[in-house]
Amino acid sequence: MKRRFKFTGIIAVFVALMTVFSACNKNPSETPEPSGQGGYDIEITSQTPSDTKTDSSSTTSKYSSEDKLIALTFDDGPHSSTTGRILDILEENNSVATFFVVGYNIERGSEIIRRATGMGCEIGNHSDGHKNLTKCTDDVLREQVDEPNKKIEKITGSSPTLFRVPGGAYKGVESDIGMPIIQWSIDTEDWKFKDAAHPDRTAEEREADLKSISDRVVAEAKNGDIILMHDIYNFTADLTDLIVKGLVEQGFKLVTVSEMFDAFGVELKDGTVYRKAENPKEITTLASGHYTVRSKYDTVNVRVEPSTESEIVTEIPNGTAVTVESAVEKWAFISFEAGSGWISSAFLAKQ
User: Fold this and answer.
1) Which of 16, 96, 121, 213 could cross-link to 116 by cystine, CB 3.0-4.6 Å?
2) How remote is the C-alpha of 101 from its chain's centroid?
């Protein structure tokens, strides 16, 4: 009996040693670890290999292009008081926005940035020193783009994926920026109405300005629009309150730029300029041929390039017969008796 007990004990010790040896030599890749990206805690649950399946195509947006989506965007911050007030307004209305921050405001606005990302807002890059990038050397341009990304990553744990050029000037440097460039489809022109620019404005006049701008924005707003504002003015914080409430009352969901484009199924590409989110299947290119200018206006602008920011060559009267020589998305290069240039395809009807 003593020998059998001794033999059984030896077997138990041998099994225990084999178990420890197996655990020590386990492939590290089999043990999931949190990435830490984004600065959030990740709950890890164990899975057997048969339960684990990675398929990026299975990821879907919580919104769709059928929703009434709109993206508020704010430039030049963050600012401790005004950006904070704007975040209060967004939070009260279950809304989010995208903030394009400037490098020299990032470190002192780190807490605001953390709060914004914690709410689900998006942080974009608005350059390091708010310089005109079209006039920068290659080295300076690279610095203007890269430095804010590094600063923001230190705060949030992730680098921005969107860029907005200072002053909207991007011609000729799109590919050098190396990020999707986000412009806008509705400009509040809030900077024109900031309090410092109107020191003699009465309280009644200020309220009238706020109402006029908010009424216009809410009336113009359409699914997929991007609205431009600046979160460094008290006037803008007050304006945000009116615009957010007005849009929510109209049934809009205020989302980030990335969320909106994702809902429309649009992949944002580096070096490409975006002004609003549109369903790709609804974007058409005109065929060459003979057309007639059709508009509710007496005249339509003809431009040097296919962009609303391009220089106007001339104005063409409504009803003018033209020839479309070539076309890109939403724009057509036309020739007519008085000249040639680019015109919005929306103003052309096939003859």
Assistant:
1) 121
2) 12
Q: What is the model's pTM?
A: 0.69
Residue percentage of the chain with pLDDT more than 70: 82
Find the range with the poorest average confidence among 36-40, 61-65, 209-213, 285-289: 36-40
Question: Rounded CA gap, 159 and 142, in Å?
Answer: 15
If asked whether residues 98 and 231 sit together in one domain, one would say yes
pLDDT of residue 188: 97
Tell me the catalytic residues: 75, 230
Long-range pairs, 190-194, Cβ under 8 A, ≥24? 190/229, 190/230, 190/233, 190/235, 190/236, 190/239, 191/230, 191/233, 193/235, 193/239, 194/233, 194/234, 194/235, 194/236
Read off the CATH number of the domain in which 316 is found. Answer: 2.30.30.40
Residue with tokens 């020191």: 199
Domain count, the chain: 2
**Which residues form the domain of 288?**
284-350
User: If DSSP codes are grouped into helix, strand and coil, which group holds residue 75?
Assistant: strand
The predicted-structure confidence for 118-155, as pLDDT tens digits, reads as follows 999 999 999 999 999 999 999 999 999 999 999 999 99
- Whether 1 and 9 have beta carbons less than 8 Å apart is answered as no
Q: Could you tell me if 73 and 97 are in contact, meaning their C-beta atoms sit under 8 angstroms apart?
A: yes
| Inside any domain, residue 254 | yes
**Final residue belonging to a domain, choices 274, 306, 335:** 274
